[in-house]
Amino acid sequence: MLGLLWLLPAIPFASALALAVLRFSRKQVAWIAVGATAASTVVSVLVTIAFLSAPPVAHAYTQVLWTWIDVGGFRPEIAFYLDPLSLIMTLVVAFVSFLIHLYSTEFMIDDDGYSRFFAYMNLFVASMLTLLLANNLLLLYLGWEGVGLCSYLLIGFWYRDPANGAAGRKAFVVTRIGDTAMVIGLFLLFHDLGTLQIQELMLRASQNWHIGSPVAVAAALLLLGGAVGKSAQLPLQTWLPDAMAGPTPVSALIHAATMVTAGVYLIARTHVLYSLAPAAQFAVALVGAATLLIAGFSALTQWDLKRVLAYSTMSQIGYMFLALGVGAWPAAIFHFMTHAFFKALLFLAAGIVIDALHDEHSIFRMGGLRTRLPIAFWTFTIAGCSLSGLPLITAGAFSKDWIIWGAWSGPNGNAGLWIVALAGVMLTTLYTFRMIFLVFFGEASSEVTKRPGKAMLIPCFVLAFLSIVGGYVKAPFARFLETVLPWTEGAHSVPITELVSEVIAALVFLMGVYLAYIFFLRKRAYAAALASSAAGSALHQFWFSDWGMDWLYDRVFVRPLVWFARVDKGDFIDGFYAGVARMNELAWRILSRTETGRLRWYAAGIAAGSVVFIAVVLFL
Amino acid sequence: MVPDFEGAMTSPYPIAAIAGILIMVLSLAALLIWVERRLLALWQDRYGPNRVGPFGLLQVVADMIKIFAKEDWLPPFADKAVFIIAPAIIMVTVLLSFAVVPFSPGIIVVDLNIALLFFLGMSSLGVYSIVLAGWASDSKYSLLGGLRAAAQMISYEVFMSLSLMGVVLLAGSFRLSAIVEAQKRLWFIVPQFLGFVLFLIAGVAEARRSPFDLPEAEAELVAGFHSEYSGMKFGMFFVGEYLGVILISSMITVLFFGGWLGPWLPPIVWFLIKMFAFICFFILLRASLPRLRFDQLMSWGWKVMLPLALLNLIVTGAVVVAWR
Amino acid sequence: MRRNLIFILMSIEIMLNGTGVAFVAAGSRWGQPDGQIMFLFILAMAAAEVSVGLALVLRLYHLHHNLDADAANEMRG
Amino acid sequence: MEAAFYIAAIVAIVSTVLTITRSNAVHALLYLIVSLLAVAVVFYAMGAPLVAALEVIIYAGAIMVLFVFVVMMLNLGKRAAITEGQWMQGNIWLGPVLLSAVLVAEVLYLILRARLTESAGGVVDPKQVGLALYGPYLIGVELSSMLLLGALVGACHLGRPVLEKAEGRYDRNSDGARAHSGGNLIRAGARRAPNAP
Q: Are D99 and A608 within 8 A, CB to CB?
């Protein structure tokens, strides 16, 4: 059964190819695309069953398909590696992708590029699964770039509007910065350790490098660069909000299942390396904590429903980074799973709302939808509660509490990170309930023109169910992951217990809900007053523009570069190339004299040439 | 320098074999003229030739006398040399093909190691007869017939060769006697059914029999490529067509139906029975099917038959590889 | 001197065939299959060349109503 | 077999010479076919049966049929043969003959210089050829398949009736079509179609 592993990425890839090359009717397209992801899901379930019923040796299974490249000592293979970590990731990715595909069949039904859309989506899933299952970093990088390419294609899916194309380009270029760092990291690893095969690499790293050695720190930081780019963390987070230009299911796919979690996966996969480089690991925690706060504040000020969700994703990924940074590895993966469920659901429900209101994105122009879109309301609320961590009954609460607890008690945890994590809970709750109150409560302000059909509702129900019960598997989850990502509490003395941390988090949550209720439902005037005061308005503007990051980058990088390029336009190198071109032109002028267009002339030329050639061979 | 010219089964008396096979084949071809007319009549509820001799058997003799006695007319506008060569080519190529057909052990002129390729080569040369006849006659109907023949032959030859490669793969040899021997356990019709169907269709087209008789389509082109022919030259085309039918039937027998293999009866009898069954099938085709349109013929050949032949070859190859 | 495109193509065929004979002869001189393989490649190339060449000839004939190679000197530099 | 080889070789040379001296295209083609068949016999005598068969099937059977087909389709007639005869006269022969003479001299010199030793190569089986073809020469096979595909597409493209159609629309003034479409005949008429009566 485990031998079916290769089918996981192969099926969506084949389907993507078929959809891109051949022509089908809309119905066929839907069947093929959804069928491919469904088949992938089935395969991943089968593989999981096989893995659980008869765990392979050392809890890892490798399937070598063929040798990819064989140059010198460099011999990466097309090989898939299955261990509890990649198993869980694959399962979640395949399943959530399947649900999102199902949802898209209805959501995109009126779009011209139906087949193109699903070809990209399938390719996206195939790349992500390749990334997850790769047994060496090069193959992982292939999937990594495939994911980047597909995100570019999908964000700019409605390419007729130049703004969308620009958003796609931005996502591509910004993640490219991270990718470059990652490639350099790969070079460094290969140069020092002589392999890219992940397990082998980890083994050699722990043998060759002592803890805190500069090479290990450099390599870990470079990989972190890649992860930061892909996962939209500080300082490369600017592409994610703009990525909302794509269709809503794409946002769901990017945010919930694929792309942004790739960075989390990369760090978890190479966690041995980070254990060897405490400085780099602490950097991960810092990046996570900073992003968590910054994105949370920004989310508070956005008016576009999808942008709020985008910042929320950033901040939740920040949580995962924080968990990775403090050494609470399984907590990060657990949060990835629950996040996949509720964030996908949030986007899907938001898609229903946006679709129902004629493409209206502004939450200030929504309102009172509770009664008119009850299903969207309930699913959105469930997902929102899960996101902000409604204690005891939602999945998000379990994973988040674990991270918060880990921020204190993990190997690298401390009180400061713990407080940041709690502040994050506050922010999350505030912006989530701001959304819920503004969109679904209050008086109605716009007309509902469309109601979702079955294909859109079923994924929502399934995800809502998972957003609630997903948290109860925490204990077996941790046990299952133990072989790959051991969870150890820090050795330092902890004055509080896990229970206390959870209770405090719950209190913070309640406070957040209350504040949101006051500001955004009961007394909206307060919020308005706060925002319009001088300091408040400046802060609002600052947060709204993502802490001025885009402005900063524009000033620091883009403009100087453009200026330099303009100044440097006429340097001597151009002269050299112009000279080459001129010489070619001259040669062309001379040679074109011989181009008479007369066949006999050419034939004579060939004959004379062979005479000369043979003569040269003969007499020299 | 000298290649392995003679296989295991070549007749010990080559001259006798040549003479015997020639006589047999030619008399069969002559007989076929009568058989075809009688069978067609039977299937179309008519009498057919029944006056001359018992069952009209001597009709053939009468026809032959007529053809021999007719004036051998050369059209003044024709290209004389080519006009005369053309009918000879078809006789030569078809009769040469018979040289490699293993009728039964010992009754074969030469058991060539590339016999199948030889057969294909001869059948591809046969087309010149039609094409050149069409060109040399210098009349528009003939020319059109010749053009059609050229296009048709090129199109159908391609998948004809390809359809046979499955058989070659299974038998592992181009030698026809080896192919027959390889069918001792199982006739190739079973594993190569698709190949058989393709070869059958290609064979009908190669023999220019209805429904693929477009080069002479009497309804549109008078008599196609042989409009200007008469007398003995016309007779050669006429007999050549029947020889072609016999050749294709015997090739089908050899390649797909185990050649001379069979219980109780002597090998040659088995061979003749199988061959005759296919000859009857050809005649039945003519009695039952309408003629294709030319564009249908071409697109049928290139768009349906060629991909099928390739598919057959690929699948056969895969199975053979998997089997080992 | 040949100016007829058909004849030029035929001459090319003759030359290709001559090369093929040389290859096969060399191959059989050493008893190796390589010469025959080269001939097969020549065969494939000849088939490709003839199909394109004859299609061009037909097109040119439609354009100029003769087969004079010198009439088809449209591609002069 | 020796005799067959020499006879076939002589036939091949004679018929090739006749090919290049005919002025009637079909006659030249017939001689060329004869020459190819003779070469096939030569191949067989040299111990290359597969190539001999392929020479007959593909060269003589397919490529030459294509030639005959095109010549018939052009239906050149007697006038063309006369023109051809006129083209063949005169002292235009001189240059090519001179060049060829030099070539022949060089080749002869090469042959004479190298002392050829007689050796019997023996028969090379079709099987051997096949194994070598799909073994070390696999890349070549792939390349020639691509070449053939390219030829197929090219021939199809050249044979398309699109150009005529585009011009046919402007039957009375086909230069106008050229000018109007900016010389792009394939798109000619596409622009003016809505206004056309």
A: yes
| C13: in domain | yes
Q: In this predicted model, what pLDDT tens digit does every residue of D139-179 receive, in sequence order?
A: 888 898 999 999 988 888 887 765 555 555 444 444 444 44
CB atoms closer than 10 angstroms to residue C47: 20
Model confidence at B11, pLDDT cuts 50, 70, 90, reads low
- Sign of torsion over alpha carbons A222, A147, A431, A502: negative
Helices A137-155 and A214-230 meet at what angle, rounded to 10?
30
- Chains A and C make contact, 3+ CB pairs within 8 Å: yes
The answer to ipTM > 0.90 is no
State how many domains chain C has: 1
CA of D132: how far to CAs of B172, C6, D51, D140, in Å? 16, 35, 14, 11
pLDDT tens track for A510-542: 888 888 888 777 777 777 777 777 777 777 777
- Is the minimum CB–CB distance between D62 and chain B shorter than 8 Å? yes
Provide the CATH number for the domain around residue C45: 1.10.287.3510
The length of chain C is 77
Tell me which chains share at least 3 CB pairs under 8 Å with chain D. A, B, C
- For residues A319-337, average pLDDT: 86
Question: What is the rounded average pLDDT of the residues A211-231?
Answer: 85
Chains A and D touch (3+ CB pairs under 8 A): yes
Q: Is residue C77 situated within a structural domain?
A: no
Inter-chain touch C76–A596, beta carbons under 8 Å? yes
> Which of A235-244, A443-452, A488-497 has the largest mean confidence?
A235-244
Greater pLDDT, B278 or A570: B278
8 Å CB contact of D48 and C52: no
Identify which of A591, A389, A406, A588 has the alpha carbon closest to the alpha carbon of residue A501. Answer: A406
Where in the sequence is the domain holding C30, given as residue range(s)?
A: 5-72
Q: Mean pLDDT, chain A, as a whole number? A: 83
How confident is the model over D44-93, as pLDDT tens digits? 888 888 888 888 888 888 888 888 888 887 766 666 667 666 666 656 66
Given phi > 0 = left and psi -120 to 50 = alpha, else beta, which region is B2? beta
Cα A94 from Cα A127, distance rounded (Å) = 11
Mean pLDDT is highest, among A140-149, A159-168, A492-501, B65-74, for A140-149
Chain B hits for D52, Cβ within 8 Å: 114
List CB contacts (< 8 A) between C31 and chain D.
121-122, 124
Interface of A with C in 231-260 (CB under 8 A): none
The DSSP H or E segment spanning A78 is: strand A77-82
Distances (CA, A) of D36 to A31, B130, B302, C6, D40: 56, 19, 27, 17, 6
Euclidean distance between CA atoms B66 and A235, whole angstroms: 102
**Domain range annotation of chain D:** 1-88
What DSSP letter does each residue of B215-241 carry, written as one string? GG-HHHHTTGGGTT--HHHHHHHHHHH
Tell me which residue of A125, A117, A118 sits closest to A143, measured CA to CA: A125
Residue A598's SS3 state is coil
Going by the DSSP 8-state scheme, the letter that residue A71 receives in this structure is B
Contact D48 C49 (CB under 8 A): no
Q: Which D residues 17-76 touch C at CB under 8 Å? A: 19-20, 25, 28-29, 32, 35-36, 39, 42-43, 46-48, 50-51, 54-55, 58-59, 62-63, 66-67, 70-71, 73-74, 76
A409-416 mean pLDDT: 77
Q: What SS3 class is residue A62?
A: strand
Domain D1-88, architecture per CATH: Up-down Bundle (1.20)
State pLDDT tens for residues B242-270: 888 888 888 888 888 887 877 887 777 88
